[in-house]
Design goal:
By secondary structure, this protein is of the alpha/beta class. It is built from 11 helices and 9 strands. The protein binds pantoate.
């Protein structure tokens, strides 16, 4: 049965014991509301490391919109059940006060620079500073590990890689494929807040990405691919586009052009029924 730890010093001690026995540690950080996407990370950690550990903490520092923080669904009992079934050995589930004793007075945050200022970072100012603070804190607390992140939040994955590299944190960051429903919608804790109509509108993200990927594969430019994504997005009345973008998957820099055969990442975000949804796919530029 998954052990639940709420105190940070106790987490440290538990990990010291595991490490003393020679175990390698796979760590998945979450904000709860666990779904099959999280399970895929827990299982990958379990397959690649001796123990799969997880954290469940709704981090107030990364919510630029306080209403979003309040609306965030959390059911620790359900989540622990999911973690247990996925073979997670122990979960750190600290209170807000244990994690950020001074909150809501501002705590330490970490700004990684330009890649955290575009797209999600531009629309949700300060979001990644809060993500980086909690990720760095949990990695420091856990010590050497392999840490698993979903590609669904592709920008977050790139920002975390940069954080780990800049601060030489002792973690190997592994990006894992997006888990989708049969109709293509990427799994997200936020989907549960959509009505049936909203859930149908949410399919447009994946449709738009497909259109962008096809345009690129046919030899279209980055601009043509972006226009194809925008075109599909504009046909869905229930969807308000935030951005459609093409980036270099390694640097997360915006791309103005892609050479044939070059891998790129197409990203889209927008609002359905007041809920922000995002998605992305890998694509390859076709023949010129
Ligand atoms: O992706 C998430 O769930 C969160 O941003 C993370 C990485 C757990 C930090 O709070």
């Amino acid at each position: 049965v998954t052990e639940v730890i709420t105190s940070l010093p106790r987490w440290r001690e538990r990990i010291a014991t595991l490490r003393a026995s020679g175990a390698t540690i796979g760590l998945t950080m979450t904000m709860g509301a666990l779904h099959a996407g999280h399970v895929s990370l827990f299982e990958r950690a379990r397959a690649e490391c001796d123990v799969s550990l997880a954290t469940i903490f709704v981090n107030p520092l990364q919510f630029n919109d306080p209403a979003d923080f309040v609306a965030y669904r959390m059911d620790l009992t359900d989540d622990l059940d999911v973690a247990d079934r996925a073979g997670v050995t122990a979960v750190l589930a600290p209170s807000t006060a244990a994690m950020w004793p001074r909150w809501p007075t501002p705590s330490t945050t970490i700004h990684v620079g330009e890649i955290a200022e575009t797209l999600e970072g531009a629309d949700r100012v300060g979001h990644f500073d809060g993500v980086c603070a909690v990720v760095a804190k949990l990695l420091v607390l856990t010590g050497p590990c392999v840490t698993y992140f979903g590609e669904k939040d592709f920008q977050q994955l790139c920002v975390v890689r940069r954080l780990v590299s800049d601060l030489v944190l002792d973690a190997e960051v592994v990006g894992c494929p997006i888990v989708r429903e049969d109709d293509g919608v990427a799994l997200s804790s936020r989907n549960a807040r959509l009505s049936a109509a909203g859930r149908r509108s949410a399919r447009v993200l994946h449709r738009a990405l497909d259109a962008g990927r096809e345009a690129l594969a046919r030899g279209g430019t980055v601009q043509v691919a972006t226009a194809a994504m925008r075109g599909v997005a504009s046909q869905e009345p229930g969807f308000q586009l935030a951005y459609a973008a093409t980036v270099d998957p390694a640097s997360f820099g915006a791309l103005a052009e892609a050479a044939p055969g070059e891998p790129v990442r197409l990203l889209i975000a927008g609002i359905v029924e007041g809920i922000r949804l995002l998605d992305n796919v890998e694509a390859v530029a076709g023949r010129a």
